[in-house]
Structure formats: C-alpha cells, structure tokens
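Please, structure for the following, as tokens.
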Amino acid sequence: MADRGGCCPPMDLFRSEAMQLVQLIVPMESAHLTVSYLGDLGLLQFKDLNSDKSPFQRTYAAQIKRCGEMARKLRFFKEQMLKAGFSTSTKPGAENDINLDDLEVKLGELEAELIEMNANGEKLQRGYNELLEYKLVLQKAGEFFASAHRAATAQQREIGSQQMGDESIETPLLQEQETSIDLSKQVKLGFITGLVPREKSMAFERILFRATRGNVLLKQVPAEDPVTDPVSGEKMEKNVFVVFYSGERAKNKILKICEAFGANRYPFAEDLGKQGLMITEVSGRISELKTTIDAGLFLRDNLLRTIGDQFEQWNVKVKKEKSIYHTLNMLSLDVTKKCLVAEGWSPVFATKQIQEALQRAAFDSNSQVGAIFQVLHTRESPPTYFRTNKFTSAFQEIVDAYGVAKYQEANPGVYTIVTFPFLFAVMFGDWGHGICLLLATLFFIVREKKLSSQKLGDITEMTFGGRYVIMMMSLFSIYTGLIYNEFFSVPFELFGRSAYACRDLSCRDATSVGLIKVGDTYPFGVDPAWHGSRSELPFLNSLKMKMSILLGVAQMNLGIILSYFNATFFSNSLNIWFQFIPQMIFLNSLFGYLSLLIIVKWCTGSQADLYHILIYMFLSPTDELGENQLFPGQKTAQIVLLLLALVSVPWMLLPKPFLLKKQHENRHQGQSYAPLESTDETQLSVANHDSHGHDHEEFEFGEVFVHQLIHTIEFVLGAVSNTASYLRLWALSLAHSELSVVFYEKVLLLAWGFNNVIILIVGIIVFIFATVGVLLVMETLSAFLHALRLHWVEFQNKFYEGDGYKFHPFAFALLGDEDD
C-alpha cells in the first residue's frame, strides 16, 4: 500500500509512516536481552499472542511478581525519603551493571533494616513523649498540691489562733468532742492525675460529674504549649487534670471514662520530696532518650541518603525488568519450547535497526542460534505513526483529540500548524495582547529543560505542553493586530502617516465627517483615522465579515482538495468522480461565487448589495440585476452556477451506490479466485467508499444508499451552515476589540481624567487585572475553542475519517513516572 500514491510530495506529517507486521522467532536464552534492546530502540509494537491466558497462567508470571515486590519496596523507600525531606539523586547511573537477584536481596535487607529502625524510633519517640507529658503532670499537679498544702496550713493556723483568743463562756462544750469524732471518722480520698485533650475537657468534666453523681472533685490546668500525643504522634493542646474520688467503684468509673476520652494517666506522689525526686529522675531519662533518638535519626538519615543516591538507578532497572517480562508474556512458545515467537507492528524504515538489535542481542547473550526476522502479509489495518518533534507534537495532539488518522490518510496536522494559530489570531487580533502572550510563552520555552523535569500542576502542565502552539498563536496575533492597527485598542501610525486629515479646525473633535483624503493610502493594515470615527464600526464589521467568509471558503476548499489526494492515494476513482468533483462544484457555485463577488466589489468600489444578489440568485435568477451588476454577463453566469449546484446534488447521491453494487456483483461473479493482492486492494477500496465497513460477502444496497443519502444531505446543509459558522471569526474579533476599547476608555482614561495619583494607581491596577483576566485568559481560551471547532467540524469533516489507532511501541523512554 505504501508503494501507491505517488501523487503527493513526500512529507513526514502528510501521511503516516508505512508500517509492516513482522514476526520474530527468538531463542529462549537470548529472549530477555532481545526484548531489552528492542525496548531501547522503541520502534516495535508487540501483539499479545496469549490473550486467551490469564496473567497467572503466563510463562513469566513469577518474575513479574518479583519485580512488583521490588517496586513496592522502592515505593516504600520513596515515601520514607519524602517524609525525611530527602530528594532522590538524578545522576545517570549504569543500571545495566546491576544484577536483578543481587538487587532483590539488597532491597530486602535495606527494607528490613529501615523497618527495624522505624519501629525502634517510634518506640523511643513514644516513650519520650510520655515522659514529657509525665514531667508536665508532675509540675502542674505538684503546683496544685503545693498551693493546696499552703492554703490548708494557713487555714489551720488561722483557726488555731481564733480558738486561743476567743475562748469564753459561750464556747460550745461539745466542740472539742465533735472535732475529735470527725477526725477519727475522716475518709481518705484517692486521686488520679493525667492529661486530657483540651477540646474534650468540658465533656470529660460533665461525664465525670454524671457518672459519679457529683461525688468527685476535678481540677484542670491548661498546658501552655501544644503537647505531642504519645499514641497518635500529633501535636495537640491538652489540660492537666487531678480527679479526687472516694471508693473503688468511683475509681473504676473514672478509669473507664479516661480511656474513652483518650486521657493519658500518670502516677503521682503526694509527698513533696518524692515529687522533686521524680521530676529529677524524669528529666534525666528525657535527656538520655533525646540523645538516643538523635543518634537513631542520624543513622536512619545516613541509610536514606545511601538509598537516595542509587534510588533512580534501581527504580529504572526494576521498571525496565518488569516491562521486559510483561512483553515476554505476550510472546508465544513454539512447539519445541526452545524458542519464543513474537509478532508486532513496526515502521518500514526501522527494519534495519530491528535486525541490528536482534544480531547484537544474539551475540551479547552468546546464543548459538540467531533470531529470525520476517515480514508477514496481513489484511489487518496497521496502526498510525507520525514522527513528530517537540514543535509539531502539540499540533498533532490537537488533531488526535478529534480522532487518530486512518492508516496513511491525509493528515490535517500539517495544515493545522499554520491555519490553527492564524484563525485564532483573526479573532484575537491585537499586537499588544499578542506581545503579552509571547512573553509568557517565551518564559516556558526558555526554561523548558528545567520545567520538563519537574512535576507541574494540571493547568501549568497543559500550558507547558502547548507552549509552541501558544507561541505561534501570539506571533500571528501580533501580525493580525498590526493589520487591525490595535495596541490595547489604541491605533498607531507605525507604517506612515494617515491618508486622512481634517478639512478645517471644526472637524478635529468630530467624527469622520469633515475628513478628506490628503495622502497615499495607508500602506499596511487599517488606517488609524478610522478608529474613533462614526463609521469605524460599520467599516470594520463589513471588512471582518467578508474576510471571515473568504477564509472559511478557502479552508473548506482545502478540505475537499485533500479528499482528492486521499482518493488518489487509495486508488478510489469513485470518490474522485462522485464525491470530490460534485462537492467542489456545489461549494464554489454558491459560496465560491460569493467570495468572488466580495473581491470584485473591493477592487471596483461598487455599491452593489451582495445580500440582494445572493438571495435573488435563488428566488428570481432570471430578473435583471440593475445597479447590483458587478461585471458583464453576471446574470448568465449566475444561472449556470445555480444549475451546476442543482445538478451536483443528484450527482453526489445516485451513481455511487449503484456503482458499488455493480463492483460487488463483478467481484463475486467469476472473480472469486482473483489473486490475493488485487482482492485486498479492491476490498480496501470498497472499505474506503463506505466508512461503516459493510460485509463484503453480503452487500446491503439499502444500507449503502441510506448512508450516501445522509452523506449528501450533510454536505449540502453543511456547506451553508459551515460557511455561516466561519462568521464567528468576525463576531469574536469584534467582541475582543470592543472589550479592549471599554477597558481602555472606561477604566484607564477615566482614572487619568481625575488628576489624582491614588485613583490613577487604582485605575491602572484594575486595567491590568481586567486585561489579564478577561482578554489574556478568558478571551484566549474562547478564541482557542472556536478555532478548535472550526478545524474539527468545518475543515476536517470534508476529508478526515479519523478512525485509526495509534502506534504504541514498546519503549523504555515511554515508561516515565507511571506507578507500577
């Protein structure tokens, strides 16, 4: 198929690369190295020859499981390094020197060592946090007991002094007796100390009161600084509490409530001397634990640094090995179980490179038998592969988002490189805004090496990926902005003096009334005198509307011409005679003629009404044109064009289904035993006629006719609607221009008119934010989406089927940062 189609010049992007289905027969001993070298080459897409087997039934399931386990360990190391704040080394390493078995043992040892260090560290840290809490309890509760003891001592002294001084006849006789009785019956109170989260302290107090029916005394003191909880390891604000109770039942209830609220309890001695000793002991243990924890962290950090230095090499090695075994699982064992058989798609140009890789693998693995490479003949549709670079890849992605090109059909991506940014710029024309976009894009382009190795946010990554598309859009916007003569809506006399001047001084502040032409026509773009005049809007509307129709008709004609190249390449004469020719006639009889009238009117300066001409061309084609006549013989030409347009509709609709039916009958009456190659070509031709891919054995004439009817109606109606759709170029260009004027006049000039520095600064800030937010972000996105629609719907539907599938070669370069 690649040998056909000599009609077009060779272009890398115009047609996808010629592909071939190849078969490799590889000895078992060199299979691993062969697949590895082919992965380095990245030009072979393997077919799965074991699709009927589950992953666990395949030959190399155990090796994949091993690689998966090693990948899990590497993910564990990465998580630990990220937690510790280390980054992995990006130094290139000789990963080929690493033996997989040795790596597996090493990773296992490192994982066990790191898990043990983590467990010990967590245990020590928990003990350290508990001691810190204990010290806090000792200090706060000690302060409470000390203050209570001082208060009690003072109270007893006061009572004693009162009793000594106030003895009289009125003193109760039984007081001494009652006091002695109370002292003998005094109940010893127990107490519990600990810490409770501050957010739960109110609920804790309420539940204690209810559970013990108020028979407890609770004292709480807030800790000044947040405390690290020993259980959760999180910092939180806590209160130190002391609960006094009486009886074992109350104690049990309090202990259960403490557990429910996550309150940590600690032992406490009433004796002040013992408290001092405990604080000293706890402080000593804290300093010892701190030293031990720091030493453990130092050892752990050293281990993580060692892992980090080789992490990338190990990670790449494991990913490569896993992908190699995945690919080997797609190969089938031959009957002798000594060779593996592989099938896959590769570009024709890669044949020599693949053969060299096979020979090198056989030599390096000391295999006595080399791999066998042979090309298979198939009727299966090959994948689509375009060789793109960093500039063209983004434009190709725009096309592929609509649909991947069918194998070797004309690729719209070639023309999209120019037409997409140009149509965007027609809607976005302002060379000031274009310069802003260009500067933003140049930032990404200048720093692309650094940014390509970083992980970016979703929007930033999308913008970075399309940096060259945005660069082209900005350059074309500068060009169309110079044509429109707009710099943030302000006109400049860049290419010479204006051709117009005031007749007298009275017209200086007026509109275009009073302006006379005094010089040569402005050499490039719109004359600055038009801006701000009364006739600016009618003039620019007329200019941009007519320009939109011209651009639209030109691009639709290009689409139809590309359908001719497709038909020629696939040797499909039916599509040339009954699709390309009538479509060209129909489109250009109506809208090609309208485009011609626009150009003639511009050149002659005629006052003819083009709306009137086009409407009455259908309603009253035989009427005289009168003042709407632009050239002699126009009436006759219009009648001929109208008849051609009417004839082209049945020309598209009727002959093709009957000729397809005749072709089918000829093929199955006496030509059943034609050579394979010609049968293949004929079937491909029929398949190209009908994109729905009807069964060649049973030709459904009704289905083919209905499909052709839909296709004809779609084109006829689409010719009108698609031409009207291009008027969005005029509408969005007008909207962009008017928004720029509003922001300039109603924000910037208005703020300038107040003669106040603060108002001017505020006005400038509002103008900048409005320009960036609305015109440089929202309007850019809007114009981008409209340009996208014009390419997908109005341009590509004329020739592009887009029902192919992408070429996905087995390549180590495409592994990236995918999670295993």
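The radius of gyration is 43 Å. The first strand starts at residue 19 and ends at 27.
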